[in-house]
Amino acid sequence: MAMAALRREGRRMAAPLITPHPINPLRSSLASSDREHTLLGVRSISTQVVRNRMKSVRNIQKITKAMKMVAASKLRAIQTKAENSRGLWQPFTALLGDTPSVDVKKNVIVTISSDKGLCGGINSTSVKISRGLHKLNAGPEKECKYVILGEKAKAQLVRDSKKDIELAFTELQKNPLNYTQVAVLADDILKNVEYDALRIVFNKFQSVVAFVPTTSTVLSPEVVEREAEAGGKLGELDSYEIEGGETKSEVLQNLTEFQFSCVMFNAMLENACSEQGARMSAMDSSSRNAGDMLDRLTLTYNRTRQASITTELIEIISGASALEG
Amino acid sequence: MLRQAPRFLLRRASAAAMRWSRPFSTDLPAETAGDSKFVDAWKKLIPNIDPPKTPSAYMAPRPPTPSTIPSKLTVNLVLPYDSVLSAKEVDMVIVPAATGQMGVLPGHVATITELKPGILSVHEGNDITKYFLSGGFAFVHANSIADIIAIEATPVDRIDQNLVQKGLAEFQQKLHSASTDVEKAEAQIGIDVYSALNAALTG
């Protein structure tokens, strides 16, 4: 069938090609197609290779476009939740201040990452920041442990810090995120890990194309009391009257645990938004790339096709002229 | 928005930007002192990666304590899924503290209190809005700003009397049949919440 089509095309193009002039510019393509033909051994099937490649690239383009649409819809759903939860951690920072440079013995770095891949560089950024914090807080008599949420960070951190990983949680996004789930998770972490300061590392969602790596620090009640006595940012804490609960330390403990769960909730929502946004832009650039590749392959395909037609014609014509003269 | 701009400009430390820091110099030192220590330590040890941002970069700084008692109290009521009230100026709020109903007026002494399930009433002129809170914390700052953080807050008119009675009966049942301490505690919590709901509807 391909041969018949080529013969038909050949007959259409035979008239202009019989004149001697066009042969020269065609010689280079002729030579290259000759090479291709001798390499592959068969005539018109050289277009088959290019056609297969074009089909697979087209499929990839469709898949990445679909993934981008899915990520966009998931982002819409979760973005409102994340923005509404932004007010949650602000009272705590207003009360207890922001103390990333606090010097404590037991640091725990809680790294939040995604379970699925194809989301750009956000997980690598989180891991880099976590490693940086680890380095910053390392020293004699100080220890620094990791609690990891999400497969991707686990895969990266297991490679060189396996002994420092205290807990790892995966498959957190099977059900849509809600506060109860995060509260249970926070409870788990607080029960099983000894800490003086918890440093939560996540990507804050600034816009669909901008994600800012952020770290929030939650101190344990003992450290809060110590810092309050030392003065500085928490110095005003003593001026607050404590009501409810039997003792001040009990209230402080409830306060820090509540702070941890609130900050975690916001951090997980922001990270989920960043993940969807990053996936959107990764899939978008992937579809664009596939489109470019498809254009280049189409050009190659047409060149190959025209060259094989020309070869066919040349053979016919030279055969015919050999018969005549 | 503009108030945050000087802090970012200050970080860039350009000579031109220094002009902008003057009007806000009262706010700046408290916020950036800890941050700059962190940023410097990070830059020394890990020069290739930008330091991560910290929460205070995303928050407008709170106003300092005024010398005279302001006339209105600023209330923020936040829930995990919504900010019900944000920077609302009111005359008084009554919070359901663990030690009983506590009224907060402008100029109230700085307090941190745990909340138990109960009604929060917000008084603004002649309007009183009531919300049923599930529990949480309330901070009253010296600058007459009250932050109330709760897990759930529903307006009282949305609560169904029948469901409350059913729930109360259910948890009382559970308390009778509870065997372990954990079950007893859970049942007790359920009873507390439903009794508070009942009281909210009747009272």
The assigned structural class of chain B equals: alpha+beta
How many DSSP-defined strands of chain A? 6
The structural class of chain A is: alpha/beta
Question: How can the largest sheet of chain A be summarized?
Answer: 5 strands, mixed
Largest sheet: spatial strand order of chain A: 3-2-1-4-5
Q: Beta fraction of the residues of chain B? A: 25-35%
Secondary-structure element order of chain B, N to C: HHHEEEEEEEEEEHH
- How far is it from the N-terminal to the C-terminal residue of chain A, by CA? 32 Å
Gyration radius of chain A, rounded: 32 Å
In angstroms, what separates the terminal alpha carbons of chain B? 43 Å
* Spatial strand order of the main sheet of chain B: 2-1-9-8-5
Estimated helix fraction of chain A: 55-70%
The chain pair forming the largest interface, with residue counts per chain, is: A-B, 51 and 51 residues
- The backbone outline of chain A, from C-alpha atoms, is elongated
Based on the structure, what is the oligomeric state of the protein chains? Answer: heterodimer
Percent range for β-strand residues of chain A = 5-15%
Mean pLDDT of chain A: 85
Rg of chain B, Cα atoms, Å = 23 Å
Keywords (chain B): Hydrogen ion transport, Ion transport, Membrane, Mitochondrion, Mitochondrion inner membrane, Transit peptide, Transport
InterPro entries (chain B): ATP_synth_F1_dsu/esu, ATP_synth_F1_dsu/esu_N, ATPsynth_dsu/esu_N
Domain ATP synthase F1 complex delta/epsilon subunit N-terminal (chain B): 73-145
Subcellular location (chain B): Mitochondrion inner membrane
